[in-house]
């Protein structure tokens, strides 16, 4: 049966199965044609330099508007795509969208794209990224690839070689969700990251909690600086947390305080305005 075939194989509808499993499979089936049916889109969330309020870039985040179920979170459908072999296609589509987007922004504004560990460990990943850069004409240094600690669970020789090849292309590598893995420090030693993204679980509400979170963030910043890496704090929602991140020397800020993920037209307005106010709503338009 599908189960015996193992994970990654049961990507078809099998009516005899338990309803929860069936529901998952229905969703997987729907995801198969989602790009062709124009149900996926990419939204862009601002990343701001902590020192002033200048735009550093945007993170590209995929969205799925399901015709019957409405919006489905990437936290739900990305794992599905990973399990049944669709992440390569979805991820490559997002990459092309993001590179198209960054062309419309000022030269010093970057775009960050999330790479699933499965994409990262695909032996063709360097060619895929290279081809996308060539097709779009975007300078490699304007592309940041966000990778989670999950990439290190695979064969380490292949992983090491991939890091080298991607760095040789000239793209920037970001370690996403830093601090949530099992051996975060070991990973820093292994790979040539340009930036560390401090996980939201350390950031959100840090100013109003005990100072343990602040102590951890301070240590991450010190470490990153001595390794010549930038830092970005993700999940900054309040002025107090923003102030704390600045006091701790975090170099970039991402969070609802500077903007939610928004469609390309809105992101492009923001990009050309060059700077953004904390909680400033002057650029936020209501959805029509
Ligand atoms: P991530 O890469 O860590 O992305 C950050 C997530 O935090 C986004 O959720 C973003 O909307 C949310 N976020 C940012 N600032 C704040 C804040 O101030 N407060 C709160 N509450 N949330 C904030 P989103 O878009 O739902 O994405 C969730 C995860 O799905 C991403 O986490 C990433 O792991 C994955 N994902 C999204 N798009 C892609 C994609 O194109 N490819 C891959 N492989 N994964 C993706
Ligand atoms: Mg990310
Ligand atoms: Mg993250
Ligand atoms: Mg995450």
From TrEMBL:
Q: Give the taxonomic lineage as stored in the record.
A: Bacteria, Pseudomonadati, Pseudomonadota, Alphaproteobacteria, Sphingomonadales
Its recorded name reads EAL domain-containing protein
Q: What organism does this protein naturally occur in?
A: Sphingomonas rosea
Which residues belong to the signal peptide in this entry? none
Pinpoint the EAL domain residues.
24-275
């Amino acid at each position: 049966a599908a189960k015996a075939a193992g994970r990654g194989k049961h990507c078809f509808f099998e009516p005899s199965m338990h309803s929860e499993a069936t529901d998952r499979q229905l969703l997987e089936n729907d995801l198969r044609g989602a790009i062709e049916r124009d149900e996926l889109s990419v939204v862009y969330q601002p990343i701001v330099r902590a020192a002033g309020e200048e735009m550093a870039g945007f993170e590209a985040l995929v969205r799925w508007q399901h015709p019957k179920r409405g919006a489905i979170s990437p936290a739900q459908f990305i794992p599905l795509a990973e399990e049944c072999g669709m992440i390569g296609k979805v991820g490559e589509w997002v990459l092309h969208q993001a590179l198209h987007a960054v062309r419309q922004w000022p030269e010093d504004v970057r775009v960050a794209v999330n790479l699933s560990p499965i994409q990262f460990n695909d032996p063709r990943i360097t060619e895929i990224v290279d081809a996308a850069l060539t097709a779009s004409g975007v300078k490699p240094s304007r592309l940041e690839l966000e990778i989670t600690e999950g990439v290190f669970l695979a064969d380490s020789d292949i992983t090491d070689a991939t890091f080298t090849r991607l760095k040789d292309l000239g793209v920037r590598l970001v370690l996403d969700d830093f601090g949530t893995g099992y051996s975060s420090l070991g990973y820093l030693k292994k790979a040539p990251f340009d930036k560390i993204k401090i996980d939201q679980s350390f950031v959100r509400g840090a100013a109003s909690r005990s100072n343990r979170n602040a102590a951890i963030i301070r240590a991450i910043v010190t470490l990153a600086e001595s390794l010549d890496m930038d830092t970005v704090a993700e999940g900054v929602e309040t002025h107090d947390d923003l102030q704390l991140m600045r006091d701790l020397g975090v170099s970039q800020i991402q969070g609802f305080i500077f903007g939610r993920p928004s469609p390309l037209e809105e992101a492009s307005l923001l990009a050309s305005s060059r700077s953004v106010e904390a909680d400033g709503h002057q650029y936020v338009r209501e959805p029509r």
